[in-house]
Amino acid sequence: MAKTLVEDLEDNTKVPFLRGILIRSLQDAGLSFKEAYQLSADIRAEISTLSSITTTELRRRVIEHLKRLKRTTVANRYAAHRSPLSFNIQVKQRDGVLRPFSRLEYQQGLETIGLESEEAIEIVTTVYKHLNERYIDQINSRHLGNLTYRYLRQSRKLGPAVAQRWLIWRDYINSGRPLVYLIGGTAGCGKSTVATMLASHLDIVRTQSTDMLREVMRTMLPKQLIPVLHTSSFAAWSALPGQPKTFTKIPEALLIHGYRTQADLLSVAIEAVIQRALRERVSLILEGVHIHPAFIEKLKIDKEAIVIPIMLGILKRKRLQRRISGRSTDAPQRRAERYLKHFDEIWRLQSYLLSEADRTNIPIVDNNDRDKVFREIMRITIDILARDFKHSPRAVFG
User: Fold this and answer.
1) pLDDT above 50: residue 357
2) Is the CA virtual torsion 362, 179, 167, 118 positive or negative?
3) 179-367 belongs to which CATH class?
């Protein structure tokens, strides 16, 4: 179905009706995101049969809806603004470059410190109103950060603790220090998905999986030479010298010994990837089953880098089985049937990794909900950043 076109008779232009633009305009006038979303959906349904509508007629309909909802004050504010796009704010970066203020980008920045979408939208709307009402068309990034800090502190729902997280994160952003995420976990727990999500949210361009490192090493070291490298982590025990081909149940010690032998073989390559990223001062996300707590404990890291170890897990047995079963639909080449056949070993290997993480105080994240996982990882990140943070708002934004 073709979109309804909105015609501006003064400018002689036609653009498609965009619900997102109307939502932002209604939020600027004082509606909550939920109210603005519902009203814009009602308007879209109302005009869906029209090929075009003038801006004047569209505004009249919006105002009528607001009045029927007894939101007269909001209707008056909405009517007073000629266009939600008429006010363009430029943000001056630290290097002097001007960039347009993007509400979406700023919302994503607030979500990075653990805010839910609606909470972030509310703060962005408040900041935008502050600038709009004062006709501020240019602001430097420090002032904008400080303004956000103040509104976070004043928020009844969020308050000083969340404002402090914003302060710590902005201080890190300004520092230029590299972040190194080390994400461990067994097969099927979602390591690669979480790594991709983090890379997207934090704009980290360098990611690496230990499985890929293992594949590279396999091409250089044939199976006849190092057979333990050529098996899955949960089956590495079977390639150890002198082991029988089958067991009624694989002994725990043997399962772990096989895994640790394979992980130790990969540790040199893993450390090389980390050290190169540190030399180049770029952030890195490294994920894989071979990220073992003992390896993290021994890792030598430059003081300028921030290392964030995470042990990812699926804490319900049946849920992990369902996640692995889903691989046969999403990625047939990953041979879900084989993983399910060895599910008991995978589950016991996860129990070992989680126990080791707990012993070494590595944060454990239950991968139950994608958005919650991101917020939890960012809270862990900011908690680690907070250990050395001693600055005041004036030092960060002054």
Assistant:
1) yes
2) negative
3) alpha beta
